[in-house]
Write a structure and sequence with these properties.
16 helices, 584 residues, Elongation Factor Tu (Ef-tu), domain 3, alpha/beta, 29 strands, FAD/NAD(P)-binding domain
C-alpha cells in the first residue's frame, strides 16, 4: 500500500469537508486531500470549479500518531497518508432522533432520501448543513424542492453550504422558507399534507417529505483514531464541544480557520472579519452581492402614482407558469438605498442579507393586441405593489427600496409556490363569483376575472375593491373596458376618502343589499363563491373558541356576515364557498 505526504487530510465528503478544503487552498496551504468513503460528495459542482483533490471509495480504517510525534498516519482502503493534520467531517446521524410530531405516511422519511424524484415535489425539513446537502441532492435529481428551515441562520452554516443555499435560490431550484416550520403532517389521497399553522405559509402537499436532522460529532473509535492521535491536537472534529472530552472540536462555519491557526502557523492569516464589514471594505461589494443574489430583471415599472406601482418581472431562468390567484416572492438586498430616511433596525448585522416578501401575481388583463391576456404561461410575472410608509412600530424594508427601481434593474424572484387561493372550486360556469378586496389585494382577482372570462364563464362576476382615493385604482380603465365587453362582469370601485362618493366599505355591500340592487346578484350559498383578499379586518377570520365554536373579531368582517347567511369557510379538508387570502 502506497504512502503519500499531505499537509491536511479531510475525512468525509460533507459540506464542512468541502468548505475546509476550499478555504485551506485559498489560504495558501498546498496538498489538501479529501477522502470519501463512497463515490460522491455533498456538492459535486464544487469539485471541478475549486479543483479539489478527492479520493473516492476510501473509507478510513485508522488514524494514528506517527513515530516523529509531528505527523499523523491515515490508513484508508486504498492507501496511507502521512499528514500534518486531519479534519474529521464525517458525521453520522443521531440515532435516537424522532420527528417532533407523530408521522404515519410512508412517504415521510428521516435521512432516507428517495432516489426517483424527477419532477416530483419534495419538502426538506432542517436548519443545518445536512438539510442543505439533502435539498441540493434532491434538486440535482430533478425534484421541485421546498426547504422548510424555520430558525436557520445561514451565517452559521459551513461556507460551502451557505454558498449552495444561495445558488439554489438564485437559480430558482428551490423555495426557501426561512421562517416556516411544519406543525403536523397528515395524509390526503396517499400523499403527505404539511400543515404549517401560520399565516405566512399555506398548507402544502408533497410527493415526499424528508426530515434532515442535525448530525452528531463522530466517535473517534468509529474511525480507529488512537488516543495518541487525539491527544496530539492535530485531529479536529466538526461539531460542537458537548461531551467530547479532549477532542479538538469546532463548528463547520469556523473550523477551517481554527485548524489553520492551530496546525499551520506559517500561514499569514488575517484576523477574522464579520462578513458585513468585509464586504463593505471594497467598492465592488454591492455589484458582487447583486450578482450573487439577483436572478430576474424588471421589464416594466408603471407608477399609478408615487406610492403605487404595477411592475413586471422576468426571470433569468426557470418556470414562471402559475394558476390565477397564486403568489411569488420578490426580494432586494438591505444594501440597496431606501426612498425614505427611515433606519432599518439592526442594519449593520443585516447589510449583506436579502429581504423577501410574497406578493400575489396580478395580470395585464389585455395583451398588446387588445385580447384577454393569458399571463399564466408567459415568461413574465406582473405585480401590483403599494409603498408601505414607516411608522413608530414598523419599519418596512422592501417596498421603500423597490420604489427606487426602474425597468432594467435586477432583483430576486423566488420559485413558484402553489398557493391555495385559486378558482379550483368554481366548476359551474353559471355560478355567481364575488371578488372582494381592499387596495392592492385586487391583484389576484385581476387574474381570476380574466381566467373566468377567457373560459366562457356566463354567471355574474362582481369585482369590488375598497381604496382611499380614485388615484389608488391602478386598473380602473381596464376593468371598465371589461364591463363594456362582457355584460356579466361588473367592477365596483369604492373610494372612502373622496368628497363626491358616499363612504362605504366592503361589508356595507352585504349589509345594505347593494349587490342585489345594483347588479341583481343573489347571495345563495348553493350557487355563489366569494373570494376575499386584503385587510384582515375586512376579511374577519374567526378563531376557535373553547368549545370549538367560531369566535369572530370585534369588528364585523365579511366572513361573519356571510356565515349568518349559510356560507362556510373553505378549508383543505372541508371545502366551502368563502375563499380568502391574507395579503397583509
Amino acid at each position: 500500500m502506497t504512502s503519500t505526504a499531505y499537509n491536511l487530510v479531510i475525512v468525509g465528503g460533507t459540506a464542512g469537508a468541502l468548505s475546509v478544503a476550499i478555504s485551506s487552498q485559498r489560504s495558501g496551504l498546498g496538498l489538501v486531500r479529501v477522502v470519501a468513503a463512497g463515490n460522491e460528495v455533498a456538492f459535486p459542482a464544487l469539485v471541478g470549479s475549486e479543483q479539489l483533490d478527492i479520493g473516492y471509495g476510501e473509507p478510513v480504517s485508522s488514524i494514528d500518531l506517527a513515530p516523529d510525534g509531528e505527523h499523523l498516519v491515515v490508513t484508508t482502503a486504498k492507501q496511507t497518508y502521512d499528514t500534518r493534520a486531519v479534519m474529521v467531517a464525517q458525521r453520522p446521524p443521531t440515532t435516537d432522533w424522532q420527528p417532533p410530531f407523530a408521522v404515519t405516511s410512508q412517504r415521510v422519511h428521516v435521512d432516507q432520501v428517495p432516489d426517483d424524484v424527477d419532477d416530483l415535489d419534495v419538502l426538506v425539513i432542517g436548519t443545518t448543513d445536512h438539510a442543505v446537502e439533502v435539498a441540493t441532492a434532491q434538486s440535482d435529481r430533478g425534484a421541485r424542492v421546498v426547504l422548510a428551515a424555520g430558525g436557520m441562520d445561514p451565517a452559521r452554516l459551513s461556507p460551502s453550504a451557505e454558498r449552495m443555499l444561495r445558488r439554489l435560490e438564485r437559480d430558482r431550484r428551490a423555495t426557501l422558507l426561512y421562517r416556516a416550520t411544519p406543525k403536523s403532517i397528515g395524509e390526503v389521497d396517499g400523499y403527505p399534507m404539511v400543515y404549517f399553522g401560520d399565516r405566512r405559509t399555506p398548507d402544502l402537499q408533497f410527493d415526499h417529505v424528508v426530515f434532515a436532522p442535525p448530525r452528531r460529532t463522530l466517535d473517534p473509535a468509529a474511525l480507529g483514531i488512537t488516543a495518541a492521535a487525539v491527544a496530539s491536537e492535530r485531529v479536529w472534529f466538526q461539531g460542537t464541544s458537548e461531551g467530547e472530552t479532549g477532542q479538538q472540536v469546532s463548528p463547520g462555519w469556523r473550523i477551517g480557520l481554527d485548524i489553520a491557526r492551530s496546525c499551520f502557523p506559517e500561514l499569514d492569516l488575517p484576523e477574522p472579519t464579520p462578513p458585513t464589514e468585509r464586504l463593505r471594505r471594497h467598492s465592488g461589494a454591492i455589484d458582487e452581492l447583486r450578482s450573487e443574489h439577483y436572478n430576474a430583471v424588471i421589464t416594466q415599472f408603471e407608477p399609478t402614482h408615487s406610492d403605487l406601482w404595477v411592475l413586471r418581472v422576468k426571470a433569468d431562468h426557470g418556470d414562471t407558469s402559475h394558476i390565477p390567484g397564486q403568489y411569488a416572492s420578490l426580494g432586494l438586498g438591505y444594501w440597496e438605498d431606501r426612498i425614505d430616511d427611515a433606519e432599518d433596525p439592526g442594519l449593520d448585522q443585516r447589510w449583506d442579507k436579502l429581504i423577501r416578501r410574497s406578493y400575489s401575481i396580478s395580470n395585464r388583463i389585455f395583451d398588446e393586441h387588445g385580447y384577454l391576456a393569458d399571463d399564466t404561461a408567459g415568461d413574465e410575472l406582473e405585480f401590483y405593489i403599494v409603498l408601505v410608509p414607516p411608522t413608530d412600530d414598523n419599519i418596512p424594508a422592501l417596498t421603500p427600496r423597490l420604489a427606487l427601481k426602474r425597468p432594467g434593474d435586477r432583483l430576486y424572484l423566488g420559485p413558484k409556490v402553489a398557493g391555495r387561493y385559486t378558482l379550483n372550486h368554481v366548476l359551474d360556469p353559471e355560478a355567481t363569483v364575488l371578488l372582494l378586496s381592499t387596495g392592492t389585494g385586487e391583484a389576484p382577482h385581476n387574474s381570476m376575472a380574466v381566467e373566468l372570462l377567457r373560459k366562457g364563464h356566463v354567471g355574474p362576476i362582481v369585482a369590488a375593491v375598497s381604496v382611499r382615493q380614485w388615484a389608488d385604482l391602478g386598473y380602473l380603465d381596464k376593468h371598465r373596458s371589461l364591463e363594456r365587453r362582457y355584460p356579466n362582469y361588473h367592477y365596483l370601485p369604492m373610494p372612502t376618502r373622496e368628497a363626491d362618493v358616499p363612504k362605504r366599505y366592503i361589508q356595507d355591500l352585504l349589509v345594505q343589499g347593494t349587490l342585489t340592487e345594483q347588479f341583481g346578484v343573489t347571495l345563495d350559498p348553493a350557487t355563489t363563491h366569494v373570494f376575499l383578499c386584503g385587510n384582515p379586518a375586512m376579511i374577519g377570520l374567526p378563531t376557535d373558541g373553547p368549545d370549538g365554536t367560531p369566535v369572530f373579531p370585534k369588528t364585523t368582517g365579511v366572513v361573519e356576515l356571510l356565515a349568518k347567511q349559510g356560507f362556510t369557510l373553505d378549508h383543505r379538508n372541508h371545502p366551502g364557498n368563502i375563499h380568502y387570502e391574507e395579503y397583509w
